[in-house]
Write a structure and sequence with these properties.
By secondary structure, the protein is of the alpha+beta class. The protein folds into three domains: about 5-80; about 110-240, no CATH class; about 245-420, no CATH class. It has helices at about 50-70, 110-125, 130-145, 150-160, 165-175, 180-195, 205-230, 235-245, 250-255, 255-265, 350-365, 395-420, and strands at about 5-10, 20-25, 25-30, 40-45, 75-80, 280-285, 295-305, 305-315, 320-325, 330-335, 340, 370-375, 380-385. Strand 2 (about 20-25) and strand 3 form a beta hairpin. Helix 3 packs parallel to helix 7 (about 205-230).
């Protein structure tokens, strides 16, 4: 390797022209940032230089530069080459964006320890230093246990809960070398970063030290997550989805605790029980609203052991459907193929409803999430997880549903011309 080039991000003024600097017998070339290339430092490597030793030289140079400038400089990535001149490194154009950004859950802890743990977790996730990220995650254990032996014991007692792929692989490697993982992570991880007096410390310029902590990072990160959830009771996003409380959360509030308790236990509701259920709208997440599925009126309900069946009709009674609230499994049930009736009065309206139903079904089949809203307040009452069809020729189904929708619209147009005054179907 002739050249090592390191992309950097400096917190001080970087040269606007290529600049050569001699340091400890080596030549370093500083290149400016432009629309295409990142700020970089290139080392002309002495013959026989390895990647690790070259990176160590660059890191020592960057540390000296940071010292004299009095500001930080972060190493982004490094590449080696045997070209006559150092290669340039492209500036990342990656943006983390989401067109369907939705937040379904945010924790709301009230106790100071949980709030501090989340603060430390955010800090550790945001740092560009593997060493201090490791220390940040380990500090979360320190919230729970003030003494080192207690922290080590907790680590050893919770290793079996590690399930993540990277963390599990690294843990398997560590088990071959160390009998006491808690001791290893505490002494060669936490203490080695936090202290600088003895020989068992992490030197941020030495690539092997940083690589070891980078490898260990998934282990302590997952342990910190286990501590926050298990010890402090702040549930994670995955646990939130596994509990799927959102499926009936709004209806739980709407019906009240007494009725929900009876349904959960499968006890019959008192005779004469009246449910104050508002007009409802059925929608698909990230889809435009389906006109036919808006403002549906509840006409009756029926208890089936732990479940509540609610019958909904459109104002003209042409669309009639059933939703199921299963309070034992805490699941929302609605099948647009099985739970929908469209009454045809020969007007254009049933064909418009049929077109909406076909498109609603198509969206549901394509991993759609069914949502139910209180039409009056636009409050989300319930939603399903993404639907995963089984034993379905998905491509053929989608084609067929598109065909049904198109044909229904054509028939609606024909009927509108032939019968411009649609009738209202009686109850």
């Amino acid at each position: 390797m002739k050249w090592l080039t390191v992309a950097v991000k400096a917190d001080f003024g970087w040269p606007v022209d290529e600049t050569e600097i001699e340091y400890l017998g080596c030549k370093y070339l500083l290149r400016p940032e432009n629309d295409v290339d990142a700020q970089s430092v290139s080392l002309l490597c002495p013959v026989g230089t390895t990647m690790d030793s070259a990176r160590l030289r660059v890191n020592r140079f960057l540390s000296a530069l940071s010292w004299v400038e009095g500001h930080g400089i972060n190493e982004l990535f490094a590449v080696g080459s045997n070209r006559p001149s150092p290669m340039k490194v492209g500036k990342s154009k990656t943006r983390l964006i989401s067109k369907k950004f939705v937040i379904d859950y945010l924790p709301e802890p009230k106790d100071e320890k949980s709030l501090r743990a989340l603060a430390l977790y955010r800090e550790a996730q945001s740092l560009n230093s593997p060493a201090y990220s490791f220390l940040g995650f380990f500090k979360i254990l320190n919230i729970l246990f003030g003494k080192g032996p207690d922290q080590k014991n907790w680590v050893n007692n919770n290793l079996a809960s590690i399930k993540g792929c990277q963390a599990s692989k690294r843990l398997a490697v560590l088990r071959k070398k160390y009998t006491d993982i808690g001791e290893y992570l505490y002494v060669q991880g936490r203490c080695a970063v936090a202290h600088a007096f003895n020989d068992s410390v992490v030197d941020p310029d030495i690539p092997a030290d940083i690589q070891r902590l980078s490898d260990d990072l998934p282990v302590i990160e997952e342990l910190s997550e286990i501590a926050i959830e298990r010890e402090l009771g702040v549930i994670s996003k995955s646990t939130f989805h596994a509990m799927h409380l959102y499926e009936l959360a709004g209806f739980e509030t709407l019906l009240g605790p007494d009725i929900v308790t009876l349904l959960k236990e499968g006890k019959p509701l008192d005779k004469g029980t009246e449910l104050d259920i508002p007009p409802l709208s059925l929608r698909l997440r990230d889809h435009a609203n389906f006109t036919s599925y808006e403002d549906l009126q509840p006409v009756s309900f029926e208890q089936c052991e732990n479940s509540l069946l609610i019958r909904l009709h459109s104002s003209d009674n042409i669309l009639q459907l059933i939703i199921l609230l299963d309070f034992k499994q805490w699941r929302l049930g609605f099948d647009p193929l099985e739970n929908v009736i469209i009454l045809d009065d020969s007007s254009a309206r049933p064909m418009l409803v049929n077109s909406d139903t076909a498109l609603f079904t198509k969206g549901a089949c394509l991993n759609g999430q069914i949502e139910i809203y209180n039409t009056k307040t636009n409050e989300l009452l319930a939603r399903t997880d993404p639907i995963i069809p089984h034993n379905v020729d998905l491509r053929a189904t989608v084609i067929n549903l598109d065909r049904i929708s198109a044909q229904s619209l054509e028939e609606a147009q024909r009927r509108a011309v032939a019968n411009p005054k649609p009738s209202v179907h009686p109850d």
